[in-house]
């Protein structure tokens, strides 16, 4: 049966890659949302294969518009199988302020990570959840990052990503008895319209990771992953997909070795809960050299 998917933030970056892969490679029916009608229409017209993208212009700061959108999808399709919360507004706001501590940044930089990111994911999930609960099935995916685990770039970035990680976990707790799963996905550092990390993964690789969760991961495996964080590289190694180059990403923040190191760190716990852990050094990621990796921001 064709999967009906909602992918937010689909006009560019990871959201666009996820929507495109689900439609082209997984033959899904994808409702792709963003604020740019032109970008969404270009995405829809680019699809080859049996899947379909329905572009939907949506401002995720408008709760009533989000609710209406979800109702329209449910009424038309009679099911919602997958929700991917990938909309994020923080990177563009953060980029001009690399090298500065939080008290020297406008409060709007914090808001950019929380509003279209954490809050928008909660709102969309809250409106989709009743439909999945009614059908006793469904998968929600929060696209987060290593910033959910440790300091990366900016205070607002980390708070927003940690919130997404906890959002998945707490929603999974309440959805568990209803047959609905909620997971967090950590992509490696990427190559997008905004970022350009050496050897980084492309949005297609991230999309293939989501597709692996949707169509290659068994129900028992999804139950085991429910509420948890999983990395794109881990899914690639398990299911055998590659990036557009035909190889796995090999950059310092996206390689297999990086993923293994991150998993080991996960298993040792988050530093604020570990009395013996060392506090992260903000200068490692909040600096002007890192800012050069964001040429599109």
Characterization of the model:
By secondary structure, the chain is α/β, with parallel strands linked by helices. It has a single domain (4-291), classed as NAD(P)-binding Rossmann-like Domain (Rossmann fold). The protein contains eleven helices and seven strands. A seven-stranded parallel β-sheet has the order 3-2-1-4-5-6-7, with helices on both faces. Strand 5, helix 6 and strand 6 (180-186) form a beta-alpha-beta unit. Helix 1 (13-24) packs across helix 7 (203-215). The termini are far apart.
Distance between the termini: 40 Å
- CATH-level-4 superfamily name: NAD(P)-binding Rossmann-like Domain
Q: Kindly state the percentage of residues in helix.
A: 40-55%
- Class derived from helix and strand content: alpha/beta
Poorly predicted residue ranges: none
Strand order of the largest sheet: 3-2-1-4-5-6-7
